[in-house]
Amino acid sequence: MSLFAHPRFLRNVLWFDAASCAVSSALHLFAGSLLAPWLGLSEALLASSGLALLVVIALASYAASCEPIPRAPVLAMIAGNWLWAAACLALLFTGAAGTLPGQAYLVAQAAVVVVLAELEWIGLRRYPVQGWA
After folding, report:
1. Using 50, 70 and 90 to split pLDDT, how confident is the model at 126?
2. How many structural domains comprise the chain?
């Protein structure tokens, strides 16, 4: 059986998305004052993104814990991941991250959320449609 065909694939990806958002949120909220000068990003930007990630954690956790997994929250997660990647790249190309570590951080964030969006899309396409979903 392929990894993508595993019955828990989508649920595991959603849990991983929630966990990675929790780590990022904690870093942005609790270490923002230390990270801001190193990354060349404002402390306010890091704090606001840390707060926004709390909503993402709740949505991903909710979707992952439902049986069956509802399609709408997963589609929202996919769209949100693409928007997050676009925002990271916009910050990168506007020069908002004034340091090389900050630029690398934005590229890494964008890359991770694009991979998560794609994995969630693959999982959603393979997940059985139930009821009116």
Report:
1. confident
2. 1
